[in-house]
């Protein structure tokens, strides 16, 4: 089939003008320096400074786009082997697990990552690595609750907390992961009993975000809630006089529930080495400190200092179990919460 | 060639010309016949992708949904829809009637100011309402101080009625805009006719004016209803469970995009049933009012009636527009130090560019559809055209996926083809281009531009068509000389609606935008997804102010 045949006649003319339009609108792809593409559900403000630091250190530029996890995963699946993406970054382990399950991520063997990231915060096959730790803990109103009254997540189902509990909606993945890890520990029946207990103890309908839950506790609408620590940090930075304090639950048992914001290298990445380099950089001391500064999240790399602020919240024992289970049991957790009437 | 012709006798040439022009006319008519099906074909691709999910059913999730959340979701959605239908029609129709027929203090101001809330995204009204009226908001906090009590009697805004009110405030402008169009052109005169027939003013309104304005009113309500069904932002801010939240939950929480799509296809079916029913009713009517009425005298209102109308319009405007703007302004002042940089110009520019292009393309296609529907009013064509508008009722993210999947498939196919013939590796070519975004927007917002145009076209009577044809004006020249002047104002309305809707749109923009091509809505998404409502105030305010530009143009256009 000769070229002249394709580009002659009616069909050919249509095809060529179509191609022309496509090329006119197409974003130029070629560039001199090495460049990698990141799909991130971590929002721009909390990731761009790290990319800038990475570019400064390595000369590799980072192009990125942000969206919700579900959309990013669908996008990667649809684009298939020609996807421009090299790295996927999410704000929870469940979606990384789902990406790996769909064959979107490539196993990575990197001594640097192995050394920097604890085993329980990474995929056993090396398909993804946690980069920051997000601790989901109890926050209480210091005027109404004594820390001695608090103990575990399960204890919040006790009738003594009737009309005293505020919760964020079960649609948020942080709560889905928490319940998934409870299922892994206690089994479905017991977990469902606990979640039902939480629902019975609610002072008001579940709220849309952690900040609102904290504000409700501070204003006295309820006495305790479950939130990620950085939301507490942000709110207290704006308003240090709020009567709120952190309590670390489950210290005698599983430890505080932790989730990760993490990353993996895309299966079809054409810049595999540079992509791994980005992951390694993000696990390095320099980047981990930036993570802490940017969003008050805990560093995943145990060699990195927490810094003054995070230390002021006290030390805690985090859940040492593999976070992979949060992904495996997430769908079950959602169903369980549906059954328990947790909206 | 020329020489050949000169030797043929003139009569034969004219014969040939006539014949060929007839042929061409026939061809064009045929083209109009096919056009709606072509557009429907394109627009239906994402809908088909959504329906294709039934190929991989997951009984277990369905059983779970039916036995747990589905019943309450359905009733929630039903009540919310009813609430929004009643709310938007009450507000929209009454305000449109008052501002187009009566004279009351501030009527000039209100007749344009009541358009303004169109520029405010529903999710923005939602987070402002929540920030203001929730337990920790300023209203309840100060009330608690004054009464020194827990204030547990205060109605919870995070409830069904709360969501319905917020959505009514956000969506009433659709009904207002369209019914005002109807009232301005026919209201006052119809009322006079009715009164001359012995009806009171009230009877005249309910028995003559309102029924005659029905296509417009219904079109407005349909838009509001479809927005409600597709909405995710507002309901998730209120944590109010609807069909849409279930779609997202099965997708994001249970990782089952197929079940999510199946749920979404039910939504499409519901909308189709509503559309078809409405059309069946409308078929029995023929509307033929064409002239824009000459400047008619307004009926003056006095005393408590005047006060009541002014008060009513003022209240709506306050809650739907002033309050959100003020609250955003206060938050934006706080956040000014961190947020504002020259990138905002870039965001705004991207938003405007996309909105303008999308408005042009969508309105062009909608106008052609409306014209095609007129040329060929058979059932198949009407049905095809109806199908092109259902995309509006799909939750944005589901539609975005429905567009992205086939687009990526096509893209891969194209690259395969190029690689086969040239051996050069190309990567994906179409994706990440504005073309994709614009096709996606068209798919989503065709309804918004089609409904106003369709109602307006009903105003062009058959006798005008016939008269034009009698003068030999057909096809494109008919479109240019007859329709365009008569439809100009509706085209403008349609374009404004699409413009503003594209400005506010999030999921499609997020999924299909090129790299480094953020818009104001994307900015709002990224701030609100971390619950930083106050920091989102700055982009929200910029978005609203930008969206006001075409609305103000529209107002000036309709005033002159």
UniProtKB/TrEMBL annotation, chain A:
Annotated source species: Nitrosomonas europaea (strain ATCC 19718 / CIP 103999 / KCTC 2705 / NBRC 14298)
UniProt keyword annotations, A-Z: Iron, Metal-binding, Signal
InterPro entries tied to this protein: Ferric-bd (IPR026045)
PANTHER family per the UniProt record, alphabetical: IRON-UTILIZATION PERIPLASMIC PROTEIN, THIAMINE-BINDING PERIPLASMIC PROTEIN-RELATED
SUPFAM superfamilies linked to this entry: Periplasmic binding protein-like II (SSF53850)
Family: Belongs to the bacterial solute-binding protein 1 family.
Name of protein: Bacterial extracellular solute-binding protein, family 1
Positions bound to Fe cation: 230-231
GO CC annotations on file: outer membrane-bounded periplasmic space
Keyword Metal-binding belongs to the record: yes
Domain of life: Bacteria
Gene Ontology MF terms: metal ion binding
